[in-house]
Amino acid sequence: DPANPQNATVILDNFFGRQFNSLHNAKIHPTSGNIFFTDVAYGWLNHFRPLPLLPNQLYRFDPNSGSVRAVADGFVLPNGLAFSQDGSTVFVSDSGMAGGFIGNNQTGPATIYAFDVDPQTESFGNKRVFSYIDGGVPHGLQLDTAGNLYAGTGDGVEVGDVYCR
């Protein structure tokens, strides 16, 4: 709230009683309005959050019902996400190569994955590699109306055409 006294309301801070690690990126699904977000151990890796209590994964929050559930797991450090205009595909970056205070691990992922989004459950399936980022680590993602996927990579912005894959 930008007006005095700048109050904030927490709408979600745990998954079945376990505190989230470090909520990182969020996007609103273009058709359902549900909120999708990544939760990752960056806070712990950078010494400002306690040891993780949950796996590094993606969640869906329904603001109407208040329900929250995991929709995808198996990431090292999930980071940014972006939906196609119709919401049928989601792109997720895994920046597992960046290890915070541990340092970079060149064998970790620096990868953007594409998933199909189930139209009924909004769970993510059919995981496939969309792009490997060679010069940096993929962070935030955004799609434009022409189908270009933009990725902040730490050393710049990389752009890929989602229709060429």
Automatic annotation (TrEMBL):
Query: Which Gene3D superfamilies does this chain map to?
Result: TolB, C-terminal domain (2.120.10.30)
Q: Which residues form the SMP-30/Gluconolactonase/LRE-like region domain?
A: 17-158
Source domain of life is Eukaryota
Question: Which Pfam families does the protein's record reference?
Answer: SGL
- How far does the signal peptide extend, from start to end residue? none
Name the UniProt record assigns to this protein: SMP-30/Gluconolactonase/LRE-like region domain-containing protein
Q: Which organism is it from?
A: Hermanssonia centrifuga
Instruction: Tell me the organism's taxonomic lineage.
Output: Eukaryota, Fungi, Dikarya, Basidiomycota, Agaricomycotina
